[in-house]
Structure formats: structure tokens, C-alpha cells
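dumping this here so i dont lose it
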């Protein structure tokens, strides 16, 4: 009976907590909290953290952890600003291709997130040389581009060649040396932030052009409300979060890759005995997950309107908190996208609710910390009962 109650509590707990937190601030804040403007602000605050948390859910279910989310978002904003400032002769590419080039820049930011995921995944499964190959390729691209006026495509191709050579040499010379995800991502937490500052030249990178022919670049409007007459709809970033959550949720539930993620997180040795390629699953998990952080970085750039190497310090803690509050287990093998969405909303309701009530920021931090501890404690109790 106790196990059944714990199971129900574990599944329904995040939703009950969301209803309780929302009801509490609705009572305390009254009309100031319950108005549409406040609800819209909560959705706006949730979009960036929520998208990164959707990706982090995959990592935590697989038994890993990622402390590099905030640094990834910062690096993506720098890359986007740099790409939007590129010229062809004396003309900005964004002026020549006002729709296509911002899309290419956004894809570049997402690819950067995926590359960071590949780097982390390779290091976690023991392919340190392959991780070094990814770093070398990126450094070659940046160095060649900053050092002269060589075309970007040529820089990218030479970076791929340099990284590819080291990748090949790693296959025949370096043995596998697996590293804990915590250590790998903690190292990137510092080094990636430093790399972002290096790419930015130590300061924020502003875009030279914000509009073309009097029309704002669409990339800058992703975090602005959609107005249809007198009706105000949530911004595109919120819809991107919803669509991404549905896609990742369906992938986790109905695809072989999703089932492999749960299997690896539940018991890595058993998964290997069942014929699952554990190393490949881990690498792909990090690529997809941190690719989601790349999408969040695109939204952060839209929010800021510039590249900022110092942005999102501490966001990784909010992301992990959202996943854990949503019912995922830090032991791996348990979690879901629905719970993560609820966890994200809980954190942002607390944040916005405290603001509406005029409370200091430390109150929000204390309440959020208490919720995290309670969620982890419930998970540990459930885990012990299952054993």
C-alpha cells in the first residue's frame, strides 16, 4: 500500500505542487497576479529555461548531468551576433538575405550546441581524443576567421579537416578513458565561458543592423508578443518550447532511441547485455540535449538583441531544478517531458509571484531551494522503497 501511495505521489506530485504554488500566489497576489499580463510574463520567463530543461531531461534520464547549459547559451549568443555582422564585400549578408541569413545564423547556433554535446558525450564515454578533435576544429575555424579575411566556408572546411585528422589518429593511438559527466561539464562550465569571452573580445557583441527596409529582423522578434488586433498571444519562443517538448516527448515514448535512454539510465550494464550500444546512446543523448540548449541560446539572443558572454550565469541550476522538481531521478532511468514542463512553471511562478508581492529576490531563491530539496527527498524515498 505504501509503495502504491509513493508511486502515485511521484507521478502526481509535481502537478499537485504546481496547483498549490499557483493557488498560493493567486490568493496572496489577487488581481495583480491573476491578470493575463502576469501569466504571459510567466510563459515568457519559462520559454528559455524550459527549452534547455527539455534537453537536460534526456541527460538526467540517461544517468548523466550537465553543468554547461548557461555557458552554452552565452556562446550561442556570441556566434549569432558574429554571424549577423558578416559582410559580403561592403554589404551585410543580412541585408542581402533578410529571411534566409538569420535562419542560417540560428542554425549555426543550434549546431554549436550540438557540437558541444558531441564534445561532452565523447569525453564521457572515454573518447578524449575525439573530444580534443572537436575542440581543435572549432579553434581552427575561429583562428582562421579572426586572423584574416578568408571566407567563412573555407575556414569551416579547414577546421573540419584539422579535427577529422585528429579524430582518425585517436582511433588508432588513444585508449578509451571514460570520465564522469559532472567533471566534464564542470570543466566546460569554466572553459566554455572563457571561450565565449574570447570570441566576444571581452565585451558584448552588438549587431550592426537591427532592421532591413524598415522591418525588424525576424530573429529579434522571437521573444516579443504576437498581437492580433486587440488580442495578445504568447510570443513565438513559447510556441517553439511547446512544439519542441511534444517532439522530444514523443521521441522518448515511442522511439527505440528513447527507450534506450531509459534503459541506459536504469542500469547501464544490463542495457549493454541487452545489446544496446551504450556509448552511442550517451553521445547522441548529449548531442540532442545540448542542441536544445542551442535553441534556447537563439531565444536568449532574441531576448537580449546582442551577444553577451556573461549571460545566463546560474541558468544550469534552474534547468536541473526544473527537471528534478518535475519528477526526474538523479539516479537515472526516471523522468518525463511533462514533469519538466511543470517543474519549469513552478520555478517561474515562484519567481514572478515573489516579484508581484514585492518580495526580495532571496525569498524566491529560498523557496526554490526548499522545493528542490523536497523533490529530491521524495525521489530518494521512492528509490529506497523500490529496492
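and the seq i came up w/
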Amino acid at each position: 500500500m505504501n509503495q502504491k501511495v509513493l508511486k502515485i505521489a511521484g507521478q502526481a506530485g509535481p502537478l499537485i505542487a504546481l496547483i498549490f504554488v499557483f493557488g498560493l500566489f493567486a490568493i496572496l497576489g489577487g488581481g495583480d497576479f491573476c491578470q493575463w499580463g502576469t501569466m504571459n510574463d510567466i510563459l515568457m520567463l519559462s520559454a528559455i529555461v524550459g527549452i534547455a530543461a527539455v534537453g537536460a531531461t534526456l541527460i538526467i534520464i540517461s544517468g548523466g548531468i550537465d553543468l554547461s547549459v548557461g555557458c552554452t547559451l552565452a556562446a550561442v549568443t556570441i556566434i549569432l551576433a558574429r554571424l549577423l555582422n558578416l559582410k559580403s564585400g561592403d554589404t551585410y549578408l543580412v541585408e542581402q538575405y533578410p529571411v534566409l541569413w538569420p535562419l542560417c545564423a540560428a542554425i549555426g547556433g543550434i549546431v554549436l550546441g550540438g557540437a558541444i554535446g558531441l564534445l561532452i558525450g565523447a569525453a564521457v564515454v572515454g573518447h578524449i581524443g575525439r573530444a580534443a578533435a572537436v575542440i581543435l576544429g572549432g579553434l581552427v575555424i575561429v583562428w582562421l576567421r579572426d586572423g584574416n579575411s578568408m571566407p567563412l566556408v573555407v575556414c569551416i572546411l579547414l577546421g573540419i579537416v584539422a579535427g577529422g585528422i585528429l579524430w582518425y589518429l585517436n582511433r588508432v593511438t588513444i585508449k578509451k578513458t571514460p570520465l564522469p559527466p559532472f567533471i566534464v561539464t564542470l570543466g566546460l562550465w569554466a572553459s566554455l565561458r572563457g571561450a565565449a569571452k574570447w570570441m566576444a573580445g571581452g565585451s558584448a557583441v552588438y549587431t550592426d543592423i537591427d532592421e532591413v527596409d524598415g522591418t525588424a529582423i525576424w530573429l529579434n522578434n522571437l521573444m516579443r508578443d504576437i498581437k492580433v488586433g486587440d488580442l495578445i498571444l504568447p510570443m513565438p519562443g513559447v510556441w517553439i518550447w511547446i512544439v519542441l517538448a511534444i517532439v522530444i516527448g514523443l521521441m522518448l515514448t515511442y522511439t527505440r532511441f528513447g527507450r534506450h535512454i531509459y534503459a541506459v539510465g536504469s542500469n547501464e550494464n544490463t542495457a549493454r547485455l541487452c545489446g544496446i550500444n551504450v556509448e552511442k546512446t550517451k553521445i547522441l543523448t548529449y548531442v540532442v540535449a545540448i542542441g536544445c540548449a542551442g535553441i534556447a541560446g537563439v531565444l536568449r539572443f532574441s531576448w537580449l538583441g546582442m551577444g553577451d558572454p556573461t549571460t545566463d550565469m546560474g541558468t544550469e541550476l534552474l534547468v536541473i531544478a526544473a527537471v528534478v522538481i518535475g519528477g526526474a531521478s538523479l539516479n537515472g532511468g526516471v523522468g518525463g517531458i511533462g514533469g519538466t514542463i511543470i517543474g519549469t512553471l513552478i520555478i517561474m511562478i515562484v519567481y514572478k509571484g515573489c516579484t508581484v508581492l514585492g518580495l526580495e529576490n532571496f525569498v524566491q531563491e529560498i523557496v526554490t531551494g526548499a522545493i528542490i530539496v523536497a523533490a529530491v527527498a521524495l525521489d530518494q524515498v521512492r528509490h529506497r522503497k523500490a529496492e
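The two ends are 15 Å apart (CA to CA).
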